[in-house]
Specification:
The chain is built from one helix and eleven strands, in the order αβββββββββββ. With 181 residues, the chain is α+β, with helices and mostly antiparallel strands. The longest helix is centred in the N-terminal third of the chain and has 39 residues.
Length: 181
């Protein structure tokens, strides 16, 4: 009876190791895909509209709405249209991310643009924010001095939202990456 239990435990232990190896393989393949995309897909700097810099449940991060060029989307005529979401397809054109109207994308849950108010102007931004996680000891990068704006360098994948790589500050027309180590 003792020999049978030892054999059973070894079989269970082996199955556990195989399952653990499978999990490591799955996570590694996702990491490899993200690194491949970063090496092969376009990378651009985008202006952001940061908000909600600290949520205890998810850790310390800056939530960023990415501002895009959206030449096909007209400003709202009245206040009730302000909250409209416009389905779009994303294209890298030069050093800009351009959102082109695409009514077919709504059914598939693709990217969408929402117009935000900044002073008197309407600014198009992707409706789904991206999170950029920051270390505990770093000062909140979303709080900028007069004349500075927060930008983020992103990888633009074939599908899905842009993926943030690093933050930078634009001052006097130049973007300087932030040292967030």
């Amino acid at each position: 009876m003792t020999g049978m239990n030892a054999t059973s435990h070894r079989g269970t232990f082996f199955k556990g190791l195989v399952l653990a190896a499978l999990h490591v393989l799955i996570v590694s393949s996702l990491g490899a895909k993200l690194l491949y995309d970063r090496a092969t897909r376009p990378r651009i700097w985008m202006e952001t509209a940061p908000y909600d810099p600290d949520l205890p449940i998810r850790g310390r991060y800056v939530s960023l709405r990415l501002i895009v060029d959206a030449p096909d989307i007209a400003p709202p005529v009245n206040e009730s249209q302000r909250w409209s979401w416009h389905p779009v397809t994303l294209h890298v054109e030069g050093d800009r991310l351009v959102a082109r109207s695409d009514p077919e994308d709504r059914a598939y849950g693709g990217p969408a643009v929402r117009l935000m108010r900044r002073g008197e102007a309407w600014i198009p931004a992707l409706s789904d924010p991206v999170a950029f996680f920051i270390p505990e000891h770093v000062e909140d990068p979303s709080r900028r001095s007069q004349g500075e704006t927060l930008w983020v360098e992103v990888t633009v994948p074939r599908a899905g939202p842009p993926r943030p790589i690093r933050l930078g500050v634009r001052r006097d027309g130049l973007i300087t990456p932030l040292p967030l180590d």
